[in-house]
Amino acid sequence: MSRFEILLGIAAIALIGWLQLIYKFRRVDGKEKYAAEYLNKFRKYIESQGRDNDLYGWMTYESVKMQRQLGILGIMSNYKPPGANYMYRSYQVLVNILPELHRTLNSDLLSISTLVSDYVQILQEMFIRYLGVLNDEKNEIRSEIRNPLKAFRSGIQFVLLVPVYIVNWFGLTSDGLLLRISRNVMFNLFSRIVSIIEFASAVVGLVVGWEEFITIIKSILGR
After folding, report:
1. DSSP letter (8 states) at residue 110
2. What is the pLDDT of residues 37-74, one digit of tens each?
3. If you count Cβ atoms within 10 Å of the first and of the last residue's Cβ in the chain, which end, N or C, has fewer?
4. Which residue pairs from 214-221 have beta carbons closer than 8 angstroms and sit at least 24 positions apart in sequence?
5. Which region holds residue 147: left if phi is over 0, alpha if psi is between -120 and 50, else beta?
6. Which letter does DSSP use for residue 146 in this model?
């Protein structure tokens, strides 16, 4: 294999990885904008003291999608409703507390101010935490985009996942399985090892060539 072909191979894998990282960045950026929009509408709804039914309707319509996007940050392992003597496990915060908040805001009782502030605090803190996580993800991806070696590693990961992508495209696996594999610790470790080996092999091929490298190794070993 010529030096030009080796360079072309490295560039192709790095380009694939770079495009993957850009796609990932835009995906996270889209989630961040959507969550920020939801939080902004939520705050306007609170400012209306629960009277803006259009905003509440929009938030309710989008609540399942937003709840799914929040993932574990939108779930309380244990939640005890105010004044209750029972507890919920794996409590989905948004889809459950939002309607409770709406009912409380539209109640005629005068003793609801503390309950309203509790609901508002729970929901706002949930969104703020989630936006913080997304911002950290964006910063990490941005640093990877600027690092050619990390772009190369991302390209290797994509190449390794091609068979899974093909199976997923035919509908034989779920998107969740693909996501779990891509985030699996062992897979990431394996892809890093492969990246190091591939990059080292490319460097050897560029600097001295494999035949000369083997000759050097043999001479060192005394063969």
Report:
1. S
2. 999 999 999 999 889 999 999 999 999 999 999 999 99
3. C
4. none
5. beta
6. T
